[in-house]
Amino acid sequence: MQETDIRPGRPEHGGRYTTVTQPLYQPQSGVLTVQYSPDEHTRLIENPPRFTWIPAQLENDRYTLQISRSPQFAPEETETVRSVPYNLYTPDHALAPGDYYWRYALLLSGDEEAAAHGDAGGEDAPRSEWSAVRRFTVPAGLPETPLAGREERYAQAAPAHPRLWLQAEELPAFRRKVQTDPAGTGWDAFYERSVAPWIGRELIAEPLPYPGNKRVAGLWRQMYIDCQEALYAIRHLSVAGVVLEDPALIARAKEWLLHVASWDVQGPTSRDYNDEAAFRVAGALAWGYDWLYGHLTETEREEVRGRLRRRTEQVAFHVIERSKIHHVPFDSHAVRSLSSVLAPCGIAMFGEEDKAKEWLNYTLEYYACLYTPWGGADGGWAEGPMYWTTGMAFVTEALNLLKKYTGIDFYARPFFQKTGDFPLYCFSPDTLRASFGDQSTLGDPVSLKTGFNIRQFAGITGNGMYQWYYEQTRAIDTDSEMKFYNYGWWDFRFDEMMYRHDYPAVEAAAPERIEPVKWFRDIGWVAFHAHMDRPDDHIMLLAKSSPYGSISHSHGDQNGFLLHAYGEPLAIESGYYIAFGSTMHRNWRRQTRSTNNILIDGQGQYAGTNKVLNMAASGAVEAVERHSGYSYSRCNATAAYKENVPYLDRYVRELYFFNESYVVVVDTIDLSEPGSVDWLLHTLHPMKLGAQSFLMRGTKADLDGRFVYCSSGDMRLTQSDEFPDVDPAEIEGLAKQWHLQASTPAARSHRIAALLVPLRKGEPKYVSYFMDDQDHGVHLYFTEDGVTHKVEVSKAY
């Protein structure tokens, strides 16, 4: 359908008028909001482009969108999309390569009910003036990832139950597979360990409120584990009962379902009281309602569906109306609730509750356009690997459910094609304490669920290195299934059974030809690797300077680095995971002093609770290079310190990884007034301190560190095994860690060069060095086994 912009009073279409009745409010975008996109600066990564803008009003906003090859929006070159319900849009077809222009207008209607059902977008619908016109270019060869329009996207959705995972038409074939090959389908393990325990288990009591309604971390965790167990009982008994056509299992599943459905929708398991509990209860009701549909009376269906609708409404209201993730997308739990609640609950109630289609539409349009706010084309995840694990666990389950029910395949999007690279390079399976961000598994082996996730992407992409990663985690992490960060979140036997049914086996391929230095531009992480395929020889250096700053589950660690070598964590992510919001979390883990970084006059980067300041406390990776004999990165964290150190003019950190063997760290700090710098490094073992050196002796490897140059004079080295400002009760009985602090004299400019040499236990090795400063720069030379490299450091004046 085509449309020409008509001035007030000018006839169109045989004397009818389209009258501009009000100006269009076009707010300035901010660091926390969606952006006006695309424009001439946008590097498109898929076709069609995704259109986003700032809402023109706070509520009841619907739009007309125009896309044109003509800057004047000539009718024959213009496509008009009417009645777009939110400030985002994904076209239903790819665009031919070339230059385009787009604009939008706010639809005006006094009949909000009509607007809500799309009836306010006809040809004569009144609208505001048009927005500013933006130009963009569609390159050739982009992956084509359109989203079917609202009228077509549910064409294959069948009314029969079940719909979650197996469709009704798939059941007979799966029953036959279970009968003929129970081990090969994964059914044997699923039944024995994930179904049988719930047959005779006493029903879980409805969780009680917190004492005085004040949240207690231990009770909060127990509450969501209770709800997770309720989900396991209902989902697994229901699936097993229906697949086996076993009346006793079905009766037991119904007993669990009706029991949990009776819990107070406004009580302790409501979204506003404990959202983790609410997500699990909603999911449990969805799976039970869907799989037991044919075995419930009409009265039971209405009862369960009514409770499920109200619980889904709670979550949807928070996501859409309060959190408004289509305006401000950086809400970790709200985004995850699309996967854990709106997708499965919307599918379960589709065609039976009016709002179910609305919730599914919102979810699909968000996944198509804004997902993920935490990364981009490189597949990175700014919140770190454990929140990648959680996010991917739920979103892949949701995308699998949606693909089965609607036929819409989001895995073709570039992010999903590449995101397996993020754990591969930044959370390698043999490493410990060697990745950034909040981590419930801190100090444990790489999570087994991370391995299950990356296998999902092996099945999607055929990448054998992802399958290798999965097999490594299965071999390494053999005893964590009952730890809270696994048992309280997912069931591996159910995961295994679904994967075997839906995806092909992929042959593992060791990562022998990985990129020696991998830059995740989307999140500002840089991973250096040598010999990832041989854990005993593997060296990993990871650096970060992120545009996401310290928002959400990120920390005040811009320009930080981590070092793992020969099976030993050397420069670590320090501290412990006690609980989100604990004093360890707030006062140590999130703060710069817990990282391998610098403090200026004792001050680090902003890592408080103001999201605007969190995002502003950002870093930038300015360069990543690969040369003969070494890899290099340059990161700038000046903005990250500005809130706490306003007199910082510049802080740049350069990393050189020479000969796949040793590291040189060069820091450039310029201040507008004199200040002292503390250079920090954290280890699991005490260090032997020299005048300008330190030696950490580990169990498999040692770390030899030396300050080879400091422009402001000799540094004073001290170490501590304390965690200041952390409640001692939180860390009672936990192993100590050691924190190096190398302090400079006060100066307006500082240049610090540090040499870090990982040493395999029992093997002699050293790197010699000397300095030449006759010119305007300082030239540092490093030699190992006859191979010399030069590093130039600018002088401080």
From TrEMBL:
Compartment(s) where it occurs, according to its Swiss-Prot or TrEMBL record: Cell envelope
Residue ranges with Basic and acidic residues bias: 1-15
Domain Heparinase II/III-like C-terminal: residue ranges: 515-687
Tree of life domain: Bacteria
Limits of the Heparinase II N-terminal domain: 59-480
Predominant location: other
Organism: Paenibacillus konkukensis
Annotated segments matching region Disordered: 1-20
Protein name per the record: Heparinase II/III-like protein
